[in-house]
Amino acid sequence: MAQNWLIPVDGSETALKAVAWAVARRDDWKEAPALHLLNVQPALPRDVSRFIDADQVRDFHREEGLKALAEAERRLKAAGIEPRLHVSVGDSAETICEFAASRGCDLILIGTRGHTGLGGTLLGSVAAKVTHLSHVPLLLVR
């Protein structure tokens, strides 16, 4: 039975290192894992709904998420790997862990530094939070 792997992608070069790790080892697989690429968009402030309808917000998150996933998707397809693309909205670490559990992922491949900004520096990286929250095995890629 094929493995089910999750690669969270925020559009950063660090996140793409996890993609590169998977591509570099594709010839070692007896059976290729199903690769899920996940981008987690931050939720917009609640009062934005006074100015923009829910469909526009959903479309915005989807478009931005697909932009962040585009390079990872391109690299995997160039290596002959067809990823499944996903965009979610919420807290990055919590959403990654919930996604991995709900999809029955066997492994989370995650870069150790991405676009976390000052908040990420003060609170710890998304990867560090995932290591504390996840019940799914992790492979941290630097």
Q: Which runs of at least 5 residues are low in confidence (pLDDT < 50)?
A: 118-124
- Average predicted confidence as pLDDT: 90
Helix content: 40-55%
Distance linking N and C termini = 29 Å
CATH architecture: 3-Layer(aba) Sandwich
How many strands in all? 5
Describe this structure in words.
This protein has helices spanning 13-24, 54-78, 92-102, 117-123, 126-133; strands at 4-8, 34-41, 84-89, 107-111, 138-141. It has 142 residues and is α/β, with parallel strands linked by helices. It has a single domain (4-141), classed as 3-Layer(aba) Sandwich (Rossmann fold), CATH 3.40.50. The protein has a 5-stranded parallel β-sheet, sandwiched between helices. β1, α1 (13-24) and β2 (34-41) form a beta-alpha-beta unit. α1 (13-24) packs across α2 and α3 packs across α5.
